[in-house]
Amino acid sequence: MENNNATIVNGVENGQHVVNGPLTTEITNQASPSLLVNEIDRQIVKIRPMATPVDQLSRCAGAKRSGSMIVDYYNVDTKPTTVTVINATGIDGDKTKLKIRTDNNDSIDVSDTLLADGINGYLPDGSIDENCQLVLYVVAKDETSITVMAANGIADSSGNTQVPMLNPNSRLIRMGRAATELDVQTAQFEALPQKAQNYCQIFKMQIEQSTLQKIANKEVDWTMTDQEEAAIYDMRLGMEKSFLFGAKRRIYDPVKKETVLLTGGIWGQAGKTFFYEENGLTQDAVIDLMREAFTGNAGSKRKVLIGGSGLIGRLNKLDYTKMISAGENVAKWGIDFTEMRSKFGKLYVLLSEVFDECGMPNNGMIIDPEYLQKYSHLPFGTEALNLKSAGVRNTDALVLTEASCLVLRYPKAHVRIVME
User: Fold this and answer.
1) What are 281-299's pLDDT values in tens digits?
2) Which tens digits make up the pLDDT trace of 402-411?
3) What angle do CA 118, 124, 125 make, to 5 degrees?
4) Rounded distance, CA 80 to CA 96, Å?
5) How many CB atoms lie within 10 A of CB 281?
6) Under DSSP, is residue 341 helix (H, G, I), strand (E, B) or coil?
7) Are residues 216 and 207 in contact, defined by beta-carbon separation less than 8 angstroms?
8) Are 172 and 115 in contact (CB under 8 A)?
9) Which ranges of the chain have pLDDT less than 50?
10) pTM score, whole prediction
11) Which CATH number fits domain 82-177: 3.30.70.1350, 2.30.30.240, 3.50.50.60, 2.40.10.170?
């Protein structure tokens, strides 16, 4: 038999091609690792996915391998874009500059331009510019304040541009930096990720069937495979609750004399919370919810909203207009969603009875699938136990095991929805 000397070559559009040999599973896994799917995981995602949407999303996105039961991960936040003025003082003899102390001077650097929210700029003739807000340029910075000039301030008789006085609590929005022609360097900017941690929890389910039960005549065909499907569904349902509402803790079991790791749920990891009153979920409130979900973060414009029956019922009772519409069904990740659209983005809405079971029928959560990450220390697998040979029981036994956790990589892209 000839040796397989198959090699992989790139096509003109970066496609993968096999030459000098047959296509094997080894070659396939090398060229396209995601093409061949593990059979257990493929069956898992088909078992009642509508009942466990969070677990379903995490499995379809794929899990990262964790070499430890303790998962350390990093979140990169964005630099603040707004500051609030604490006080502003003029500089004696120089009305073209203003010293400002803000609640976060560290987020502002020399050469930054700032937009004064709600304060109009001025035209060259000294009249108020109704179409442009005041723009400031940072010329200096010390330990306590920043010094600014006005791009469109008040022009005096000498042709100098004076800076209007800013009141406390005025809001300044950081815009782009402005460099001169001879500038080579600018203020440095480095983003440092923030470390976070979660525990992988060992989820287990054991199925047993006695030998007599297996060979006995039955009114319906009920086999070990049917029991496995029911057990996997029950296991996933329990995992769904842990992934959502679990508490990251270590517990010492005095009976087993071992430490148990409990995973932390993503409900507590979300970076935003939207509150609504019992009768306050109007169309305007939904638009505010959309605004909260899709602004102020670097998330995607398509997110998933899961909620209890009370929240979903309130959403269904709304009269939608052209500004916000709903009704179309969308199939993604093996789940049938109802799509809700607005100018801010799209929400894929689904009832999650887990919220009802956990006493939160009026609450929900908006999840950005792009920033939902699963870590797996032990991938989902099955192990047959030989209890007969061990002299324990005359049964066929199967143990289902997975050690995993979920994390939100960018917390502000996810929103808790809570009824007050």
Assistant:
1) 988 899 999 999 998 766 7
2) 899 999 888 8
3) 105
4) 27
5) 21
6) strand
7) no
8) yes
9) 1-3, 12, 23, 34-40, 184-192, 210-224
10) 0.62
11) 2.40.10.170
Q: Is 31 exposed, middle or buried (0-12, 13-18, 19+ CB in 10 A)?
A: middle
| Pair 86, 166: CB distance under 8 Å | no
Measured CA to CA, the distance from residue 362 to residue 232 in angstroms comes to: 28
Both tokens of 60, joined, read 């379809």
What residue ranges do the domains of the chain occupy? Answer: 7-36, 38-78+191-420, 82-177
Mention the CATH class of domain 38-78+191-420.
alpha beta
Cα distances from 130 to residues 19, 157, 166, 172, 417, in angstroms, run 68, 22, 18, 18, 38
255 Cβ contact partners less than 8 Å away, ≥ 6 residues apart: none
Tokens linked to 39: 């059979």
The two structure tokens encoding residue 12? 């003109």
User: What residue has token string 């560290």?
Assistant: 106
Model pLDDT for residues 340-383, shown as the tens digit of each residue: 888 888 999 999 988 988 889 999 999 999 889 999 988 887 77
Element (H, E) at 286: helix 283-294
Sheet containing 201-210: which strands, arranged edge to edge? 63-65, 372-385, 395-408, 201-210
Given the structure tokens 């349902």, which residue do they identify?
237
